Amino acid sequence: MRGSLHSRRALMLGGLAAGVLARPFSAAAVTAGSRPRIAAMDFGLAETLIEMGLPPIAVPDPNTWADWVVEPPLPADIVNLGTDREPNLELLAALKPDLIVTTPFLDDITPLLERFAPTRTFSVYAPPPGPIYARSVAATRELAGAVGMESAGEDLISRAQTVMDEVREHLAAAGLGGRSLLIVQFLDTRHVRVYGRGSLFGDVLERCGLTNGWPRASNYWGFNTVGIEELSVSPASGIAYLEPIAPDTLDRLAASPLWNRLPAVESGRIYRLPAALMFGMLPAAMRFARQISLVLGGAPSNG
Amino acid sequence: MGDVAVSSSGGMRPKLRPLALVLLLGLPAVLACTANLSMQLPPQKWWRALVEPDTADIAELLVFYSLAPRLAVSLLAGAALGLSGALLQQVLRNPIASPTTLGVEAGANLALGATLIFAPVLIGFGREWVALGGGLLAILLVLLLSRRSGFAPLVVILAGMVTGLACASLAALLTLFNSHYLAGLFLWGAGSLSQQDWSVAAELAPRIAVAGIAAVLLLRPLTLLGLEDSAARSLGLSLRLFRFAALAVAVALSAFVVASVGSFGFIGLAAPVLARLSGARRLGSRLVAAALLGAALLCLTDQMVMLLSSSYEMMLPTGAVTAMLGAPLLLWMVPRLNLPPHSVSGLISPAMNMIRPAPLLAGLAVLLLVVSAISATVGPGVKGWGAALPGDLLWSLRFPRILAAIAGGTLLAVAGGILQRMTGNPMASPEVLGVSAGAAGGLMVALFLFDLSARTGQVLATTAGASLALVVILALARASKGAPERVILAGIAIGALLDSLVSILMASGDPRAMRLFNWMTGSTYGVDTASAIGSIVAAALVLAALPMVARWLEILPLGDASARALGISSLLSRSLLLALAALATALATLLVGPLSFVGLVAPPLARLAGLRRALPELVGAALLGSAIMVGADFIGRTIAFPWQLPAGLVASAIGAPVFLWLLTRRQTP
User: Fold this and answer.
1) Rounded to a whole number, what is the distance in Å from the CA of B593 to chain A's nearest CA?
2) Which chain A residue lies closest to B61 (C-alpha atoms)?
3) Phi, psi values for residue B469, rounded to 5°
4) Among residues B639, B151, B601, B568, which one has the least CA distance to residue B412?
5) Host domain of residue A276
6) Is residue B314 very low, low, confident or very high in pLDDT (cuts 50, 70, 90)?
7) A/B interface, count of CB pairs below 8 Å
8) B227: pLDDT confidence band, cut at 50, 70 and 90?
């Protein structure tokens, strides 16, 4: 499924370049000098570091960045650490990073990582399910403190808040305030992940003045895996699905009466969103909010 | 072709009429279905919802476009799998042939997964063709492998199950490298029947109908295929052509199901077996009964799964549940099959003479040292390949892995050697007998029920699991004397049971499941120096215990009477040996996972090298097993740098073909 995207990557990167140009340049706050060399074990932490102007030197599996994260772009010379559950220790030893940042998902290997550099764990996606956006803000602040870039951290937090506010105003002006949306990702032609309360996307919806249409409790990553027919338990008037999506999914759906009878589909409120990291932090939240604003409100909200 | 007629399963007496059995299974299915329906809609609306649903009423739409097609698809898929299994059993004259036991489902599934990841364009031609290609490749491989045995039923099944396991572990590797962001592939393999419209039913129905018609056309030649080859040939049949046609139809049936809804392990085995049990004697009635029973079985399972999922709001893949129910069925059947024994030669090499063990063992020790030294010294890095000297940080990273690989290889080889000598079965081993799976099951219980993360607790739990599996298997072995393949088949069924449990856990999305999965692939990653040294000490202790039990190992294969005559308590010695094998397996499984095949291949290789007496054989096997594991760890660490393939999986990529080769070797024609 993932591989299906490689062909589209060029297209995505084109869009990405435009997105970068459109955003105000904000990383100037970083002072030159001894910038810590950081290995990030998680894409969410990596995107946050990049937005703060301190890109990591190594991440696991950077080849999938363009499929799941897209922006901000990874530095071209990023080192591939292998898988996230088993990052290559010999590479870490050779890279000698000043700091390793990781998440509770990788608690098992934290003692190993600690042998190579001071290791800090930042908890956003961890039990129990909770407010991901607020946790991301706290984690960003913590991360900024850990790398000595408090002001860049605060800057990122307030930029994210600004994006949320602007999107909310834009949507309200377009008469879309309070609209209820389902955010899904297709696993195959019959199953979806629905991002509910306690997901990054769910929190962003609410901050942008929209309503998350998924009524059930989610796991601590913020999603449920369900058959598409179960989407009918939601009264949502719109459905936004995220790329990547397998090539035959849309055709199959178009032929499905049950899908076609979902209130959202009947009224034509189906939105395709470019990929945004579902388990990301503030940069993913900003990207997602902008995309929502773009597909719902029809005009860019920012920049 | 072999000399086994299908009707030779005389151990099973007809008890129920086929139709009665269908009703017996169908009734609870109808009840469960009714319960599921009434959760959606009040009964008075059912008819209208099924005939002309009110498009404004979402509940009626759900019944019409989700519940009803799901019911239809479960019936269709079940019928297709039942028919497929019955056809395979007839063509191969093998009462335990089925899409699952021949690796067809796993092959189709792997083909789909690999295509989705590496060549998604091909999916555009239709998933069913990709699945069909994978299924056909798998069964051709199985037939090729079992050709030399004259397609002896148990050999065919063993080749099929191992091919299936190999396909499944390759699919596992794909999942492993696709990180936790991607769950679709996995869901699919586990077989979910959830539907949103009639399209799946509409695509399955004509395909199955065409295949069904083909089966009817093949009925007469197929009936004759059940006869002896000579008799069939004298009736003027082109055996080869009809066999291939019937095989293709059977594979197509199950590939269609895999392509549309995923795999449903063991339905294709259970349905035809039940059909025969229920007394369907003639081929035609057996095919019909198998299709009906398959439909009833899958429908019943799926309706129960739906009831459960709606009560717990969790996604439960029906395919994983059928696999879990099917493995015990296979276990139950194995001792009841009435088949002529097929002798597997294993590795009693005819020409080689006894040689003096000491120089050979010294040579093997040197081999192990050389492999370890290479593994510790060389490896790729940021700037390409380079060498690390003792004292380097790299050296200290590689050393624990090497120690763990040596310990794992030693322990598995010793356990395998003990089991092979005790059971007199040249293909026994902890992996094949399900002992490793038992150990893995123990760890699963420790992780999920008791949240045991301490090493000692895990050792205890894995040892308990390994012992339990060993006791079950040996009880089965006793029940089916003189048929080593049966015992192995039972062991592989235990392994399949474990796989389905892991699938269900994975579907729950619990991150501990991912951890378990990672560990099951047999990774030496993250072994720290302390536990590496601990396991080396444990391995050394097990080796040190060998001289004390070596005499038993020489004498026990001669039989209980000889043992008693020589003053050995058979019960005591057997129990102690079993305990030693279980402990060694448990320790090794913790280190290198349950699927390495090292315990299987190392002892026969040692015998091939000319080590015949118990002690030298076990020590030689330990050295060889260690060298294989260290080599596997080295390959896994370097071949896809910076990615790392788990040593256990690499070792199984070496071990599975060796196993299949051992299996197909046959001394006498």
Assistant:
1) 16
2) A258
3) -60, -40
4) B601
5) 159-297
6) low
7) 148
8) low
